[in-house]
Amino acid sequence: MSMRTLVLNSAPSDFHPDTHIALGPWCFYKAEEIYPAWEKLPFVDPFRNCADRIAGGEACRALSHALVERIATEMNQRHGMQHSRAYWHVVLMDWVLHVVMISRRLWCHVEAFKHAVGSEPLEVPLPGTEFPRPDDTAQLVTGCYNSTDFRGWLIGQIVRQSAPANWKPVEAGKPNSSFATRRSRALSDNCDRRGDRVRHISGMRRWHEIALSTVVRLAPKRPARFSALPSGSMDGFPPLFLQLLDRLLEATRPRNLGDGFAKLAAAAAGRPAHPGRLDVSFIDPHNDVGNIARAQAGESDERIVDVQHGGVVQGAAVAPFSAELEYCYDTYITWGWTEHPPYNGRFLPLPYPYLRLLERSRRKPGSDIVLVGTIMPAFTPRFDCSADTLEYRRWKARFIASLGAAAQRSLVYRPYPTSHAFDDLKWLKERFAELREWQGTNFNAALKSFRLVVLDHASTTFAFAMAANVPTIGFWNQSDWLMSAKPWEKFKALERVGILFDTPEKAAAQVNTILPDIEAWWLDPERQRVRKEWCRTFAWSDRWWFWRWAKALATL
User: Fold this and answer.
1) The pLDDT of residue 183
2) Residue 478: CA count within 13 A, CB half-sphere
3) What is the DSSP letter of 274?
4) Topology of domain 358-538, per CATH?
5) Mean pLDDT across the stretch 502-506?
6) What is the rounded average pLDDT of the residues 113-140?
7) Which of 217, 367, 416, 479 has CB 3.0 to 4.6 Å from 375, enough for a Cys bridge?
């Protein structure tokens, strides 16, 4: 038998397991038709166990802190500055953490693959050694999630560093692509363009922002705080990986954090300072311009307050991204919860205005049952709680197959709106030809028109449906979507009243049972009591939300 070819990134048109071996499932992204039985191929997954993902996330956090400390010293020297570690944490951590996490996940995947194939000789076509530098951190982060070429380049760098003797590298000579072009953002986009101290919060009207900004201006000034930053550590990482990581960080440093930094920093330094005042908004952690402005504001003793923009993930057992990029500021306003162990932060629970809009909107239920899907990425670059892509897709099919004929006729499917993921709708329609796709453009606006909402993942939409008091059923693999112990108590209550299930078959059986009168089932007093208690922690809506915000901001 001739030597097989190791496919690092995208499966060739002549792929066959007799002549090729795929490094990971991502090789068949947008290429599933090349080898239809690809899902049955054996793939390694070094982080299949959620406990391993928790450990991996914590190790990457510690390593990222050590690297940010080192790069901060270099940046201060290069630009003649004396900024604090907190300043550089805000400016650099998003870039560093993403490069560390994706590199670590891919490195461990290659190591597990090497162990699985053993001494088999493999020919390994390698991409070029150069890849265009991103303009900004947002472009880099988008590339981590969506760029097949960037992932291929990273894998090629890893293989060059760590390939065993039985692998035969071959220069493929394929030209590298570049990061997707993004609109550059002005300094004002994420800062107080109109002098607003409260802004960019879903569900607030202009007069709400003006009134609450006035409350903030009239409130007493108080000292700013920044979450304590832990000591960094490189312990436990192989020297070869750390050597490679240094090169990757240098190659991926966004231009905004390189030659373009001085100009952005000067613009931020010219922004008026408001020491002791609150600055409340939804923060985009990928926006370099906003990050530099916030870092400067923090050093001027402004009190930066971030606001939760999505739901449920804040109960996740592994969430290093949130811990480092959202919880680090003076205060983090939540949709009702007060802690997220093991992560630190000052959490302020307040009713979210957008949830109130959903709650008070008029319900006109139709006949459709909607199954809502989430993204099925070719590769997950972060350490977080998410499902195995292939198994997650199979769970959808198991659910639909377990529905009775009447429920199947009523079912519509709403796939996650992206072109950068495996196509679950096409895959499902190949198995269930009569499955209809939801054709609307504003799903949140249509939420109350469904007879029943079914979710196969823990997400923001689950929180929206519960707050809107739309009949809802959830099911997901609870070892994948692992919650911290205390938040999970609230989810266990949903299990007890038949809203949440741990298998698709159980969820489908519940749909079949309640189908004759879904509204009566949903409005059961005990079920409503449990729903309201859950919402008070994860999706708090309140008629008097404005006054609660005004009081909280006046005294914070």
Assistant:
1) 47
2) 16
3) -
4) Rossmann fold (3.40.50)
5) 97
6) 95
7) 416
Report the chain's terminal Cα–Cα distance, integer Å.
71
Per-residue exposure over 157-196, b if at least 16 CB sit within 10 Å of its own CB, e if not: bbbebbbeeebeeeeeeeeebebeeeeeeebeebbbeeeb
CA dihedral (478, 527, 473, 440) positive or negative: negative
Torsion-angle region of residue 117: left (phi > 0), alpha (psi -120 to 50) or beta?
A: alpha
Provide the residue count of the chain: 556
Which pair of tokens denotes residue 325?
């990029």
Cα angle for residues 456, 460, 466 (degrees, 5° grid): 80
CB 373 within 8 A of CB 416: yes
CB 338 within 8 A of CB 407: no
Bridge partners, 343 (sequence order): 340
* DSSP state letter for 483: B
User: Residue 329 in 3-state DSSP?
Assistant: coil
Average pLDDT over residues 388-417: 96
Q: What is the mean pLDDT of the chain?
A: 93
Count CB neighbours of 449 within 10 A.
15
Across 158-314, the runs of DSSP E, i.e. the strands, are 167-171, 198-199, 278-281, 303-307
Cis-peptide, bond into residue 25, ω within 30° of zero: no
Please say whether the beta carbons of 134 and 179 come within 8 A: yes
**Contact 456/396 with Cβ under 8 angstroms?**
yes
CA distance linking residue 24 with residue 4, whole number of Å: 15
For residue 22, list its beta bridge partners: 7
- Amino acid letter, 469: N
Delimiting residues of CATH 3.40.50.2000 domain(s) in the chain: 358-538
Nearest to 168 by CA among 40, 309, 6, 314: 6
Alpha carbon distance 327, 522 (integer Å): 35
pLDDT digit string, tens, across residues 236-287: 999 999 999 999 999 999 999 999 999 999 988 888 889 999 999 999 999 9
Q: Distance between CA 319 and CA 324 in Å, rounded?
A: 9
**3-state class (DSSP) for residue 413:** strand
Q: At what angle do helices 85-117 and 148-162 cross, to 10 degrees?
A: 70
Tokens matching residue 306 = 């971030």
Q: Which residue has the tokens 């940046």?
A: 75
The answer, yes or no, to whether residue 195 has pLDDT greater than 80, is no
Report which of 348, 339, 322, 331 is spatially closest to residue 489, judged by C-alpha positions: 339
Distance from C-alpha of 271 to C-alpha of 294, rounded to nearest angstrom: 10
d(CA 378, CA 388): 10
Q: CA angle at residue 523 from 520 to 528, to 5 degrees?
A: 155
The identity of residue 554, as a single letter, is A
| CB burial readout 366-389, b (16+ within 10 A) else e | eebbbbbbbbbbbbbbbbbbbbbb
Cα 197 from Cα 70, distance rounded (Å): 33
For residue 538, the SS3 value is helix
User: 């377990």: which residue's tokens?
Assistant: 402
- Collapse the DSSP code of 265 into the 3-class scheme (helix H, G, I; strand E, B; otherwise coil) and give the result: helix
Positive or negative, the Cα torsion across 315, 321, 325, 329?
positive
pTM, entire model: 0.95
Nearest to 245 by CA among 87, 47, 106, 78: 106
